[in-house]
Inverse folding.
């Protein structure tokens, strides 16, 4: 038996500092690495947006101090150049989605919690896990470095549509922002693929005894579906990225049609390609990608709601099936991003139908989470506040998606600020609120200290107020017809004039939002050192991650736990009064005894 | 135990030979004077048989577990959906003949470039499905 | 703090799935590779059907060298599965011979491929010449990168990695099986690539 071999290691040789903290194969360390890196990128992406909002609020006005510091190329005379504005826009999206939210939601939360929640000592492939992080890191460095090459970072939107992405900042060199974007994406996609294989195998193969599929915390189901999305939807984008790299570096014409005239000159390439091919390959990933953004968040919210209502989740089975259906359907709706590309009526009807259909599992999940509140003994802890706010915010995001999913109404709204409002509601006061909630919730397990409730509440109310200040007016601007990605904030157009004022309001909201994050940042670092010491299970939760010492050691469990019941056994009928929860790991005879 | 493996080895060699033969057949079919569609179909059939043999025997898929079949089935569904919907989307495209692959402008000189937008419609041949 | 972690089911199969971890892992990875090459194949289909004219691979590509390469890869798949069988029969020496042959076939494939590419470059048949050449280089190039990746893994398992046979023979055998699955997949892709690029007529 393989167990004989590691008796040699019984004498606990401590790994070197590098092995322990830099090149660790422990999923918890890797999860923290992902988390910290992702938070830094989230902050950076946020800063890019704050600069953009200055230009939109005060078009043509010099940005004080920062304007000079960023140099004449980017900010001539302190005023943002259009090219730099485009770089900020493209990179804000890219960084937030691929370097911020997904690495945090999947790389950090998934890596840290999945092995713990399934009762395993680590992920199925710890070394592969380590590689996944470092490949992500390299991808992030490439993306960041792209700001510093000639002509700056990618500036054709996070969507990198051809032909613009191919002809912008042209050079058959890797030292162009767009080319580095493509290279960075190859690294990020590879990291995602390796990570998703790890999570899927861990959940399927390493579940502890007694942990049947229907006893899995919904968080794990969400991570499982998410990983399948990453596994199967990313490769076409990788293929497309390679093809765009070929177009940029070798002059091929995968995405360049024939007869293209640019600035009065016939483009000299071979032609015969299709810009639409890029769009299809891109959106084939990018639509499932948005479910990658939301599913882990729903998983986090589910855990926090069950714990802070002291009752089981309503409709666990419905949640599970809905999330699987959501994942499946997410592969067949992508062209609703392409209604204005001259699609025929047949294909357009197909995608409208599937898009309407996919709202069903979404609503099932949201409804189950809302119904889970009914009759609960709600504890308004900071994580619960964020979780509660998530529900209506995601609701707004989801509902505002409906006119976009129908091609007729989309004609008016496509590529306007309405779209920006829609997707930010789901991601910003949606997913990011869930990620914040998760930090407050699991911080005690990870660090052994509680975060300050007071600072947490300031962070919460401030964020809620300013998120709505920033994104609600965008619906109004969008319905008036204000286009996206306009460097002057839409000033040049008559139809925008009456909604331009909102740009200043949104700017104030954005900077206010930035300011209140200080409550979080201060709380985070202060609590690490001075937070109230946490017990092993301070929230009185039921899932397996709370059954470890705090913080969990290498190997997590001194003995592999057995799961004796479902994940949300709170307030069982007939349970005795001193304890309103039955953890998954406590054997029945203990529970029965307490019931006497 | 080792007898079973010996039989396996013989089988692998036979499969290998079959694959060689299949390859030669594929090349031979390419030279046949048949309609392009027929040629493609025959080539696809031969390639499928070859991949069936590689997957089934070399990759042990004939005696694999249910879970692996389920993963592969899911993948097959998505691949078919992707290719199918791509073809559907490209086929059901409004506008000019091959409009997405060609910007159908006839006489392209710098002078014409300014009128590119108008020429786009003018030169589009009558298009019907 | 460095309690040794024992990840179960690296060697024995988990009862309810009947699989060991790496086998499930590699099939999931191969699923993603199917999507990757599938996307390239569908791009080929779309670019070709949308094109007014399309070059004939049979004419401008060296199909004879490619056919030779097909034999090389098929041969390498046979030697690969033989190397795994050798381990099943507890014969490390035979394993090394067959794995060595597999590696050599890989080298042969790459040599023939570079001869092919070199000839193309010499005649100015570059990716920017036509979408056909573009997709030819992209698909064969990406496939070639996968061959190199497989060779790195196989080389490691032949060399330093084979030490595991002494301590955990079953686990090592599983590793060879998994490496074999990847290698056969690379062969599979080529089985479709070869006729598609080299044998289809033009338009």
């Amino acid at each position: 038996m393989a167990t004989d071999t590691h008796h040699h290691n019984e004498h606990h040789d401590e790994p070197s500092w590098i092995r322990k903290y830099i090149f660790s194969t422990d999923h918890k360390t890797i999860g923290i690495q992902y988390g910290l890196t992702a938070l830094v990128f989230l902050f950076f992406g946020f800063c890019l947006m704050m600069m953009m909002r200055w230009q939109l609020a005060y078009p043509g006005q010099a940005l004080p101090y920062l304007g000079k510091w960023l140099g004449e190329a980017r900010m001539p005379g302190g005023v943002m150049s259009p090219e730099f504005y485009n770089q900020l826009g493209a990179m804000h999206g890219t960084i937030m989605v691929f370097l911020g939210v997904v690495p945090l939601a999947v790389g950090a939360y998934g890596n840290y919690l999945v092995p713990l929640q399934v009762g395993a000592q680590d992920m199925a492939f710890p070394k592969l896990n380590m590689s996944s992080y470092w490949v992500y890191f390299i991808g992030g460095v490439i993306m960041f470095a792209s700001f510093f090459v000639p002509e700056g970072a990618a500036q054709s939107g996070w969507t990198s549509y051809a032909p613009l992405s191919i002809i912008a900042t042209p050079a058959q060199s890797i030292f162009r922002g767009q080319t580095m974007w493509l290279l960075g994406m190859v690294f990020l996609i590879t990291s995602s693929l390796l990570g998703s294989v790890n999570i899927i195998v861990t959940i399927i193969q390493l579940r502890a005894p007694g942990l049947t599929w229907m006893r899995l915390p919904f968080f794990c189901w969400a991570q499982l579906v998410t990983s399948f999305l990453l596994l199967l939807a990313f490769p076409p984008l990788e293929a497309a990225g390679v093809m765009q790299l070929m177009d940029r570096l070798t002059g091929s014409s995968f995405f360049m049609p024939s007869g293209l005239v640019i600035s009065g000159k016939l483009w000299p390439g071979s032609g015969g390609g299709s810009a639409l091919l890029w769009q299809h390959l891109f959106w084939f990933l990018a639509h499932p990608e948005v479910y990658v953004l939301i599913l882990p968040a729903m998983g986090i919210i589910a855990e926090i709601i069950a714990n802070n209502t002291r009752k089981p989740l309503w409709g666990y089975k419905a949640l599970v099936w809905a999330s699987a259906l959501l994942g499946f359907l997410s592969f067949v709706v992508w062209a609703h991003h392409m209604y204005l590309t001259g699609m025929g009526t047949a294909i357009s009807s197909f995608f409208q139908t599937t898009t309407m259909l996919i709202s069903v599992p979404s609503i099932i999940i949201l409804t189950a989470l809302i119904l889970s509140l009914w009759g609960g003994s709600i504890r308004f802890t900071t994580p619960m506040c964020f979780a509660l706010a998530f529900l209506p915010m995601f609701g707004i995001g989801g509902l505002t998606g409906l006119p976009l999913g129908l091609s007729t109404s989309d004609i008016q709204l496509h590529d306007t600020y309405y779209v920006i409002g829609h997707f930010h509601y789901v991601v910003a006061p949606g997913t990011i609120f869930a990620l914040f909630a998760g930090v407050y919730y699991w911080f005690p397990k990870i660090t052994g200290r509680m975060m300050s409730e007071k600072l947490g509440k300031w962070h919460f109310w401030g964020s809620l107020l300013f998120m709505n200040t920033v994104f609600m007016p965008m619906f109004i601007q969008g319905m008036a017809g204000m286009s996206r990605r306009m460097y002057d904030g839409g000033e040049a157009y008559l139809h925008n004039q009456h909604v331009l004022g909102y740009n200043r309001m949104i700017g104030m909201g954005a900077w206010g939002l930035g300011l209140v994050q200080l409550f979080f940042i201060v709380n985070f670092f202060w609590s690490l050192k001075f937070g109230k010491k946490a017990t092993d299970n301070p929230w009185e939760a039921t899932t397996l991650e709370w059954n470890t010492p705090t913080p969990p050691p290498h190997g997590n469990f001194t003995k592999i736990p057995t799961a004796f019941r479902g994940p949300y056994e709170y307030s069982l009928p007939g349970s005795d009064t001193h304890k309103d929860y039955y953890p998954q790991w406590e054997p029945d005879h203990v529970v029965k005894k307490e019931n006497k | 135990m080792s007898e079973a493996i010996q039989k396996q080895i013989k089988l692998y060699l036979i499969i290998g030979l079959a694959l060689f033969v299949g390859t030669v057949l594929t090349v031979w079919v390419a030279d046949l004077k048949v309609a392009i569609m027929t040629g493609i179909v025959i080539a696809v059939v031969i390639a499928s048989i070859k991949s069936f043999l590689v997957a089934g025997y070399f990759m042990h898929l004939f005696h694999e577990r249910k879970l692996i079949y389920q993963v592969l089935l899911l993948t097959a569904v998505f691949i078919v959906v992707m290719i199918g919907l791509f073809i559907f989307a490209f086929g059901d495209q409004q506008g000019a003949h091959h409009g997405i692959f060609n910007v159908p402008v006839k006489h392209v000189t710098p002078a014409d470039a300014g009128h590119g937008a108008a020429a786009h419609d003018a030169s589009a041949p009558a298009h019907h499905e | 703090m460095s309690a040794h972690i024992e990840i179960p089911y690296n060697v024995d199969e988990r009862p309810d799935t009947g699989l060991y971890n790496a086998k499930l892992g590699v099939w999931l990875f191969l699923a993603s590779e199917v999507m990757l090459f599938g996307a390239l194949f569908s791009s080929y289909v779309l670019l070709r059907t949308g094109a007014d004219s399309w070059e004939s691979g049979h004419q401008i590509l060296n199909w004879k060298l490619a056919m030779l390469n097909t034999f090389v890869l098929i041969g390498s798949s046979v030697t690969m599965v033989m190397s795994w069988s050798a381990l099943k029969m507890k014969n490390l020496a035979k394993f090394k011979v067959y794995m060595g042959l597999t590696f050599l076939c890989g080298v042969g494939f790459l040599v023939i491929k570079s001869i092919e590419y070199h000839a193309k470059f010499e005649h100015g048949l570059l990716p920017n010449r036509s979408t056909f050449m573009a997709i030819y280089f992209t698909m064969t190039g990406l496939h070639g990168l996968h061959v190199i990746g497989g060779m790195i893994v196989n080389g490691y398992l032949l060399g330093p990695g084979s030490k595991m046979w002494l301590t955990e023979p079953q686990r090592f055998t599983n590793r060879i099986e998994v490496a074999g699955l990847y290698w056969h997949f690379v062969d599979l892709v080529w089985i479709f690539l070869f006729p598609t690029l080299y044998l289809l007529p033009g338009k």
